[in-house]
Amino acid sequence: MTIGIDARLYGPKWGGGGLGRYVEELVTELQQIDTKNRYVLFLKPENFDACTITNKNFRKVKVNAHWYTFKEQLAMPRAIKKAKVDLVHYPHWNVPLGSDVPFVVTIHDLILLEDPGSAKATTLGPILYGLKRLGFIRVLKHAVHQSKAIIAVSQYTKGSILNHFDVSPDKIHTVYEGVSLLNSRRSPSPTSVIPAIAQQPYFLYVGSAYPHKNLESLLHAFSFFVQEHPEVTLVLVGRDDSFYKKLHQEVIEIGIPEGRVVFPGFVPDAALAALYEHAALYLYPSRIEGFGLPPLEAMQFGTPVAAARSSSLPEVLGDAAIYFDPDNIEEMVEVMEKSIGDGTRKEERGKRIEQTKKYSWNTMAKETLALYEQFGG
């Protein structure tokens, strides 16, 4: 069987964090475990060379079409037809309407339907935005109803799909993501990555700044906290896009002292490991998450994690995290206060590390491969 994977999101640098990590780890693990099937990886010019082939049954095809565009609706079906694949795996719901090749789709979340704030986050005018949103809904419905199988990354996401679509529960297969093993022993010190945090405790967030991530609320909470703890820095790691630029302005408008919030932009894995390991607290205030990779990445170093009591996060992080109401600024401040000089940090370190061992990219790839063989044979 020849399996196509829409790998245009490959790599966190190009695929926007979690989605990029998911595609990269899936491709890496499949190359290690499957020597029977053949694979065609559809990549963008930007990440084509970053994807390394280690299995002779895998080959790469370049598709110069960005996701969420009209161009991908034309370019992807042509590329898929030319590659003569038997089954396609789309790791996100942006499935082209014009392809008649059987497919499975991974749905990470339904933020498009569940968080109007994020859904409306756009630089387009109202008319163009309205047309684009209608297109998104059409594509999402097609992905759900025409797929041979749906992979949900958590029980929460499975429930969300069932809540919004008339589809059989048997069509949806929960396959948890894994935890990327970031090794800080070969990493630079956090202060060499971000000199501004030298000699200071710091809180950390890693990810995008889309509205559902709730970073404005986090900044407001930190603005109160830093008045009593001016020695603490908040580090927000993520690609410097228009959403992060808005946060830069928010820091100024709410009067957080200069230098107390640091925006390092995208940080490669080696440096990211050091930041995770030495953070006093990892904060994750997101209102909606299908899985939530970054807090697990922080936990593998034993770092304390405080997360929103919402969506999939309690399911994935279990009792190894501290939780707060994402809409309650006072609760966020209380969590920050507790983390400074918290004597339970070392005592519960083992619990946090054990929680991450429940999730494996290798297991994810094996379960995904089983679905390929079930629905593509």
Features:
single chain; globular; alpha/beta; 13 strands; 44% helix; 377 residues; 7-stranded parallel β-sheet
Describe the structure concisely.
With about 375 residues, the chain is an alpha/beta fold. About 45% of the residues lie in helices and about 15% in strands.
Describe this structure in words.
By secondary structure, this protein is of the alpha/beta class. It contains 17 helices and 13 strands. The chain has helices at 12-15, 18-33, 70-83, 111-114, 116-119, 126-146, 155-164, 190-193, 215-228, 242-253, 269-278, 293-299, 313-317, 329-339, 344-347, 349-356, 361-376; strands spanning 2-6, 38-43, 58-62, 87-90, 103-107, 149-152, 172-174, 202-206, 233-237, 261-265, 281-284, 305-308, 322-324. The longest helix is centred in the middle third of the chain and has 21 residues, at 126-146. It starts with a strand and ends with a helix.
